[in-house]
């Protein structure tokens, strides 16, 4: 089976330029709003930069677009198989993400990610578009959303408004989970939206 036609760098370069133009932002203004250096942004748009999770999350938040709109997606066929070894890893301070598929139904969009929180590591996010759903497959995961904290084990689920500041922490060994980002087509970021944290788990810590 062949490797993906475009790398994360190439997809981010094309999509970042497109979205920035749609927003009418100069590189200087985007740098000011995102806190990312103008030279770094220029490298990302030329496809020569090295994007991290933090960078992509920051751009998603400032440009008010879903993360997958910056990373692109492949149209589904009748049978879609995604091999983990063939998907590029987008890494951050504590998390490795693999974008597996985008699912659309009407105006609803769900992006599916394989997520690994590295052992004894923490990944912070200032917030981004959508509702975030995580199902833990292996390990113990601490999730914090706007001061609310829960601990999850294998089979446990948590969902919350992703516009709120949040973090994932692996408690000891690495945590493997499935991450779903749900939003509406054309949805924009609303940081002031009410906090909503939903946990379905028989073993959630108080």
TrEMBL record:
Keywords: DNA-binding
Any single Pfam family the record assigns to this protein: HTH_3
Database matches in InterPro entries: Cro/C1-type_HTH (IPR001387), Cupin_2 (IPR013096), Lambda_DNA-bd_dom_sf (IPR010982), RmlC-like_jellyroll (IPR014710), RmlC_Cupin_sf (IPR011051), TransReg_Diox_bact_type (IPR050807)
HTH cro/C1-type domain: residues covered: 16-70
Keyword Heme: no
Entries under PROSITE patterns matching the protein: HTH_CROC1
Keyword DNA-binding listed: yes
PANTHER family xrefs: HTH-TYPE TRANSCRIPTIONAL REGULATOR, METHYLPHOSPHONATE SYNTHASE
Protein name as it appears in the record: XRE family transcriptional regulator
The species this protein was found in: Streptantibioticus ferralitis
């Amino acid at each position: 089976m062949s490797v993906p036609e475009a790398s994360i760098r190439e997809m981010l370069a094309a999509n970042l330029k497109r979205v920035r133009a749609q927003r009418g932002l100069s590189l200087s203004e985007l740098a000011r709003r995102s806190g990312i250096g103008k030279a770094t942004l220029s490298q990302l748009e030329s496809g020569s930069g090295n994007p991290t999770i933090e960078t992509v999350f920051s751009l998603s938040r400032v440009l008010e677009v879903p993360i997958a709109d910056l990373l692109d997606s492949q149209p589904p066929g009748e049978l879609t198989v995604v091999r983990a070894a063939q998907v590029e890893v987008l890494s951050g301070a504590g998390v490795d993400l693999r974008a597996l598929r985008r699912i659309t139904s009407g105006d609803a969009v769900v992006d599916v990610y394989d997520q690994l929180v590295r052992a004894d590591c923490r990944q912070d996010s200032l917030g981004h578009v959508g509702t975030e759903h995580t199902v833990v497959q292996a390990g113990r995961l601490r999730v914090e959303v706007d001061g609310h904290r829960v601990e999850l084990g294998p089979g446990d689920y948590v969902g919350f408004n992703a516009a709120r500041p949040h973090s994932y922490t692996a408690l000891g060994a690495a945590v493997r989970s499935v991450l779903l980002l749900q939003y509406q087509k054309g949805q924009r970021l609303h940081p002031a939206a009410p906090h909503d944290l939903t946990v379905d788990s028989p073993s959630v810590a108080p």
